[in-house]
Amino acid sequence: MVQKLPFLKESPSQTAGPYVHIGTNPNWVEITGVWKEDLGLVLVGPETKGERIVIKGRVFDGAGDPLKDALLEIWQADAEGLYNSPQEKRGKADPNFVGWGRQPADGTTGEYRFETIKPGRVPYKDGRLMAPHITVWIVARGINTGLHTRLYFSDEEAANAECPVLARIAHKARVPTLIATRAEENGLPTYTFDIHIQGEKETVFFDI
Amino acid sequence: MSDQGSFYQRDRSWHPPAFTPSYKTSVLRSPQQPLLSLENTISELTGPVFGHDKLGPLDNDLLRNFAKTGDPIGQRIVVYGRVLDENARPVPGALLEFWQANAGGRYRHKKETYLAAIDPNFGGCGRAITDEEGRYWFRTIKPGAYPWPNGVNDWRPAHIHFSVFGHAFAQRLITQMYFEGDPMIWQDPIVATIPDKSAIEQLVAALDRQNTLPMDALAYKFDIVLRGRRSTMFENRMEGN
Ligand SMILES: [Fe+2]
Fold it and tell me: Which of A88, A186, B39, B139 has the fewest Cβ atoms surrounding its Cβ within 10 A?
C-alpha cells in the first residue's frame, strides 16, 4: 500500500432537467412571491461603463430544432477587461457591472437575449491578449453536464486573428462557430450567436 | 496555500458522458466533436459573487416560502451539508439554488402535465449561501417519485435538484440529490448516465438520525464537492521542468 492522497472527487453532474426554471427563474414560471426578482436578468445600469450591446440567438439540437427549455448564463469582463470577482487581482472592475447574466430561452421560439456591454480584452496565461469574448454556459434537459463555450465578436477581426484561444482550434472551419455577427437593431448593436449542439455546424465547446 | 492556481482537470469518466442513449433526450443534445481542452485563463478562474444580502429570510424554508393557507403536505425534512472543494477545504459564500417536486411528485411548472395534484402551499424552490465553514441548510418536504416520458414506464426516484456557484466559473455545477435507501435510484436512466457506482453514491444523501429534529423533521446530510485548485507552490516552477 502507498500513502493516501487527500483529494475528494468532484460531485458528478446531472442534467438540469426540464424544470430548471423553478430553481433559477421562479418568477418567470409564475412562482411569485418567493423572491422578488430572478437573478441575472439585468446586467447594465445607467452608471455602467461601456458600449451597450445586445446578444441573442438560439440553441439548436442535432435535428436542427431550437431548444425551448435551455437556460443560458454568461460571464464576462467589464469594458476595461477586468472581472468583477475576488479572484481578479489585476485591478478593480467597474463597480456598476457584475458581468454575470442568466436568461431562459423563450418557451415558444427558443430565442435568448442579453442586454450587456462589450467586454474589454483580457490576457491569456502567457500575457498575450485574448480577443474580447463572453463565456457562455448552457444547461437543459438532455444535457448531462453544462456546456461551456465562448462568444467572440465579428467586428474584432484583428483581435480574433491573434487570439491564442481561437488559435488552438485545429479545424479552422470551426472558428466561425464562436463568432457572433453584428447588426444594428432598434439602434443597438446586436450580435447574433446561434449555438449548435451537434451536427455539421457544431459549436466548439470547451473542457475548461 | 492561496486560491491562485488553476483547477484540477475535470474527471470526465466520473461525470456522465454527453451521449447516453438510455436517456433519450441526450441523443440529439450531445456534442459529437471532442471538447477543446483549455487551460484555465482569467475568464474561467473568476466568477460572480452573491452576497448574503441577496437572500430573504424564507429563501431556505420551502415549508413557508410559498405557503398560502398552511404548511405543504408531506414528510418534513431538513437538508444540510457542506460545500467543499477537491482539496477538502470548505467553500464559503457559495450560492446554492434548489428545486424539487412536491410530495406527490408534481412540479409547479406550466409545462408539467403529470396528474398528481399541485400543492397550493408548495412552490418548490429555495436558495442558500454557505457560511465561513461551507455549511448550508434548508427545510422542505420530501419530494415524491414521478413518471416521465422516456421509456413507457420510467420513473424518477425522489430527488432535489441543486445548482451551485463556487468562486470561479470553472466550478459551475448542476446536479441532483437522492435519498438513502431508495430502491428507485437504481432503475433510473438519468442516474444511470453516471458510469461509476461510487460516483452515484456521492449523490445519495445520508439519513442522519443524530440531527433529526425530534417531533418535527427528519434530517438528510448532503455534501457537495466542487473542483479544487492547484496550490501556488508549484505555479512558479522553472520553465522546462
Ligand atoms: Fe426533477
Answer: A186
Q: How far apart are CA B174 and CA B170, in angstroms?
A: 12
Per the CB < 8 A criterion, the answer to whether B186 and B197 are in contact is no
According to the model, what pLDDT value does residue A129 have? Answer: 98
Evaluate if residue B69 carries a pLDDT over 90.
yes
Q: What pLDDT does residue B239 have?
A: 45
A135 contacts chain B (CB < 8 A) = yes
Question: Do the beta carbons of residue A97 and residue A75 sit within 8 Å?
Answer: no
Question: Considering only residues 74 to 93 of chain B, which have any Cβ-Cβ distance to chain A shorter than 8 Å?
Answer: 84-88
| In CATH, A35-196 is 3.30.365.10 | no
Domain spanning B3-27+44-231, CATH architecture: Sandwich (2.60)
Backbone angles phi, psi at B204, to 5 degrees: -100, 115
Residues 6+ apart with CB under 8 A from A22: A29, A31, B99, B107, B108, B109, B123, B124, B125
Which of B9, B46, B99 lies nearest to residue A88, judging by beta carbons? B46
**A29: nearest CB among B4, B110, B163:** B110
Catalytic positions of B are: 107, 146, 156, 159, 161
A to B CB pairs, distance under 8 Å: 265
Return d(Cα A19, Cα A25) in angstroms, integer.
Answer: 10
